[in-house]
Amino acid sequence: MKITKVEALYLRLPQIKQQADSGQDALIVRIETDAGITGIGEVDSSPMAVKGAIEGPYSHAITSGLGDLILGEDPLETEKIWYKMYVANIYAGRSGIGFHAMSGIDMALWDIKGKALGQPIWKLLGGGFHKKIRCYASSLFGATPKATRDLARRFRDQGFNAVKFGWAPMGQNEANDIALVREGRKGLGDDADLMIDAGLVWDSKTALQRANAFAEYKIFWLEEPLRPDNYEGYRRLAENTPIRIAAGEEESGRQSYLDLMDRGKIDVVQIDLTRCGGFSEGMKIASLAWDRGLPVANHGFTTYINVMAALHWLNSIPNALICEFVAEEKTNLREQITRQTLRAKDGYLAVPEEPGLGIALNENAVRKYRVA
To answer: What pLDDT, in 10s, does the model give residues 188-209?
Structure first.
């Protein structure tokens, strides 16, 4: 079996809101083979930059478009292809956009591998730790503390016993920050887990003050309060608050995760398979976290392709903590571009059993929303 075509599909809603909602567009990687098996992957990044990294031409020995680079390769040789992409694109591929593009390709290759061998990806990865995986309802904050309380109550009524709120209006001032968390806890109740995603809004001192203030409301973790490269700030924060500090969605590749774990001393390692290097690299990062006694959780605020990939991966590692599951209103691409939609039951998601990722594109929606 050989790879015959690699393409990057950019899908986008006609109207895009100016908010931190990455479900309004999507970059999908589709790989075809001469055996008639097609695999899909996803990249949560700057979509057109990733499209260029995949569909761009050869430039020179260590800067090459990734699509042409892997034509003719056996898609089952995922590890070999991963390193071929890395070495042949080392100028642009050691982190960031190039790494993100590799992630989507790697995910699509594992989808092909599972379909070809008739097995779910988690089984090929050697997994089988779970039959179902606990998830948390992930949402932007409400516009006000009261709106956040109402959202929390709604998610609890839907069966979630863990909820995360994030980004704006967090960071406006101390009183509002604390009110958002207080009202979120009121809506959720005392016997459920509340996570807070600060959205990179504070300096180190402010983050420590907020973490200590939020401790009264027993939040489960405080996510990304600082800029990604502020490892010293993360270390000081993690060592001086009882609150778990979570981070990692901005990272790409095991080297940056090592910095975050060993220098930043975070408590929960968050890994997005659409950015970190795909399944091939995600397994290695999870092993590094396991060696350090750290739990891992996925990051995923995009489509159900990302969620399905996360379920396979979380079922394949011993230190899986919980799965992120977007619970916002179903009015974006997430509900339309795949044939399958996912729903949590009593705060859990079922582990996929179908070959490959177990999810397929809705081609009518792809044609409707594709812009490049």
So the answer is: 999 999 999 999 999 999 999 9
Q: What is the 3-state secondary structure (H, E, C) of the chain?
A: CCEEEEEEEEEECCCCCCCCCCCCEEEEEEEEECCCCEEEEEECCCHHHHHHHHHCCCCECCECCHHHHHCCCCCCCHHHHHHHHHHHCHHHHCCHHHHHHHHHHHHHHHHHHHHHHCCEHHHHCCCCCCCEEEEEEEEECCCCHHHHHHHHHHHHHCCCCEEEEECCCCCCCHHHHHHHHHHHHHHHCCCCEEEEECCCCCCHHHHHHHHHHHHHHCCCEEECCCCCCCHHHHHHHHHCCCCCEEECCCCCCHHHHHHHHHHCCCCEEEECCCCCCHHHHHHHHHHHHHHCCCCEEECCCCCHHHHHHHHHHHCCCCCEEEEEEECCCCCCHHHCCECCCCCCECCEEECCCCCECCCCECHHHHHHHECC
Could you say which architecture CATH assigns to the domain 3-119+363-369?
2-Layer Sandwich (3.30)
How confident is the model over 136-161, as pLDDT tens digits?
999 999 999 999 999 999 999 999 99
Domain 124-350 in CATH: superfamily? Enolase-like C-terminal domain (3.20.20.120)
Tens digits of residue pLDDT in 310-339: 999 999 999 999 999 998 766 678 999 999
Q: What is the pTM of this model?
A: 0.97
